[in-house]
Amino acid sequence: MAVHQRLLFVILTLVFTTFGFSQNFNPASWDNMVEKISDSEYKIIMTVTVEDGYSIYSQYKVDKEGFAPETYFEFKNQEGNYTLIGKTTEPDAKIKYDPIFEEDVKKFQGSVSFTQKINLINPDFKQIEITAEYQTCNDERCILGDETFKLNLDGSEVINEVATIDERSKTLSEKLKLDITGWDKYEKQNIEEKSNFSIFILGFLGGLIALLTPCVFPMIPLTVSFFTKSSGDSKKGVFNSILYGFFIFLIYVLLSIPFHLLDSLDPGILNNISTNVTLNIIFFIIFIAFAFSFFGYYELTLPQSWSAKMDSKANKIGGFIGVFFMALTLAIVSFSCTGPILGTLLGSSLTADGGAVQLSMGMAGFGLALALPFTLFAMFPKWLNSLPKSGGWLNTVKVVLGFIELALALKFLSNADLVEHWSLLKREIFIGLWIIIGIGLILYLFGKIKFPHDGPLQKLGKGRITTGILVVAFVIYLIPGLTNTKYANLKLLSGFPPPMFYSLYEKNSECPLDLNCSKDWEEGLAKAKAENKPILLDFTGWACVNCRKMEEQVWSTSDVYDMLSDNYVIISLYVDDKKELPQDEQFDFLRANGTVKQIETIGDKWATLQTVNFENNSQPYYVLLNHDLELLNVTNTYEPNAEAYFKWLETGLKNFEAGSKVNTFQFK
User: Fold this and answer.
1) What is the DSSP letter of 471?
2) Which residues contact 465 (CB under 8 A, 6 or more apart)?
């Protein structure tokens, strides 16, 4: 398969799998075998069976310039071990018109065998590894397939190694299994992801901001004029502009695909990434670097050779592929302006419950906002006359973004500080630094300070004045956050500054809102029994934004606060706590899929406890239990709503007093 054809195959397939189609469904199943022909020759037979209504495509195209996919096999570990004899063969297939790709293709239904002969060079070589890339399609959709096969040349069954753990690890692993009861009495409800649409809108707004930067805005009239004039045909020019916009959108969506692959390998990996100290420090440094780049002290760009290579590809290839490379060139050239915004999107998505799904939604919104102008102005070229002229206002937007980058950089440093308990950025220090950054932005907007690319300021425009007034109001709002009063709870910013108990002021406890809580399961259970109170099991995280929103917007209300303080024992388990367990408490945990997870930190232990007992790895996650670990309330999902949360706690308390058994509840 040619490189550009394989690229297009992957692009088209990912479009299908990203939007609305389950990546777990695969209508193809494989049954492979090895036949020995002689001492040095073997025949590898790969047989695939596809479900009724689906087809799998041939290895060879009918139309070499077409878009239909090909089945592709890669025979690994060849060097020094074996060589291929000829090409991989397949049965003859009738050429048929394909309604999805609108071209003639060869494809198979039912079962089909692909055969490859090999010549053995290394007599000690025992096992061959093969990967297959393919698509199975019906009249409505296509499903991407990517399989890896291992076959023993002697025909024996491949035995996968089974991981084992020692007796000590088995004993400690068993302690994580709590034997929660009550599930059988009530139907579990599926937990819906919190408003993916909202992250899409945030991504869209980010894309609109990126449009107003010097890297992108001047490209709009230039690119539209190129498509509408160079084609010689206005309809073709409009079509190419639409295609160009679509490819811009697609490129940004594709950037999120690797995170879906990571998420499928380990459901907790994205949370680990978002709370990883090293990565948060790296993000902090990158955002500081981007901020000073936005200020105009230097320019950060991807290697110029990348954009030059993409540009030459676009000119050389032409057609659909050429337009794709033009879109890729724009993405690379504009990186110095779009990179910081995309970094913000990445960081906020991975710390949210939606993980890779929300990242894809955010990237889709960003790509759509960036792509729309190139399409709309091509369709309505007269609108170009209404665009403001490029000028100093573009640099003003860029500098303002630089101040925002500085503020966001502190969030990443704060995440690292919280999970490692360094005590560098206590809540009041964090808010104080935001106030300083806000004052700097105010001085800039009102012309009191300048940066390298700023020209002489003749007068303050309406945009500068309006933005300046908004920033002044925001700084005034931040000031009470420096105090130790009831006004220090900045509810509009819940989740961004460190929690209120992470303070320079002396607090009664290191729990949310000075409530009395335990941060150890066994200790909290013993306390609940001693006080004869029900348990609020709170799976939370130091870097969990939604956890802070629940604590500072819901737990802080008088009814909920009094209910928690007087009637419950709170057990808060921080799943991202990087503090190492004592050596004698560290162990290996054998997952259900046969892999081993090393339990080395407090967060490892509580995250595993949550996953094992509740089949859930999102935070915050709340469970009401009695002393016999029976569930006390029904499964439900709400927005952070103080009244609903109070009723949930109240019902759980009544069930505890009555000894009833019900189910769990989760807030997102």
Assistant:
1) H
2) 445
User: Of the given ranges (8-12, 416-420, 524-528, 640-644), which has the lowest mean pLDDT?
Assistant: 8-12
How are the residues of the chain apportioned to helix, strand and coil, as percentages rounded to the nearest 5? 50, 15, 35
Highest-confidence segment of 246-250, 557-561, 595-599, 634-638: 557-561
Spatial CA neighbour of 258 closest among 387, 114, 138, 356 = 356
Which residue, among 414, 455, 453, 437, has the nearest Cα to 542 in the 3D structure? 414
Distance CA 225, CA 215 (A): 17
Question: What does the pLDDT read at residue 438?
Answer: 95
Q: Assess whether pLDDT exceeds 70 at residue 386.
A: no
Contact (CB, 8 A) for 287 and 409 = yes
- 383-388 long-range contacts, Cβ below 8 Å, gap at least 24? 384/220, 384/221, 384/224, 387/220, 387/221
pLDDT for position 108: 92
Architecture of the domain whose range is 28-161 = Sandwich (2.60)
DSSP string of 194-248, one letter each residue:
S-HHHHHHHHHHHHHHHHTSTTTTTHHHHHHHHHHHHTS-HHHHHHHHHHHHHHH
Cα gap 523→450, rounded to integer Å: 57
Please, are residues 345 and 363 in contact by the beta-carbon 8 Å criterion?
yes
Residues 6+ apart with CB under 8 A from 20: none
Identify the pLDDT of residue 8: 44
CATH top class, domain 512-664: alpha beta
Q: Could you give the CA distance from residue 484 to residue 503 in angstroms, rounded to a whole number?
A: 9
**Which helix (H) or strand (E) segment is 435 a member of?**
helix 427-445
- Closest to 330 (Cα-Cα) out of 370, 283, 378, 272: 370
Helix (H, G, I), strand (E, B) or coil at 57: strand
Q: Which of 527, 628, 514, 511 is nearest to 572 (CA)?
A: 511
pLDDT band at 333 (very low <50, low <70, confident <90, very high): low
pLDDT in the model for residue 18 = 39
Between 405 and 231, where is the model more confident?
405
Q: Given a cut of 70, is residue 80 above it in pLDDT?
A: yes
The interaxial angle of helices 392-420 and 335-350, nearest 10 deg, is: 30
Give the model's pLDDT for residue 22.
36
Helices (H), 497-630: 521-531, 545-549, 558-567, 602-614
Domain range list for the chain: 28-161, 193-387, 393-425+427-497, 512-664
| Burial tier of 536 (Cβ tally within 10 Å: 0-12, 13-18, 19+) | buried
Listed residue (656, 485, 647, 129) closest to 667, CA to CA = 647
Instruction: Supply the pLDDT for residue 476.
Output: 96
Tokens of 623: 């469970």
**pTM over 0.85, yes/no:** no
- Measure the CA–CA gap between 616 and 180, rounded to whole angstroms: 14
3-state SS, 292-325, equals HHHHCCCCCCCCHHHHHHHHHHHHHHCHHHHHHH
- Reading the block at residue 597, the tokens are 């997870």
Q: For residues 87 and 78, is the Cβ–Cβ distance under 8 A? A: no
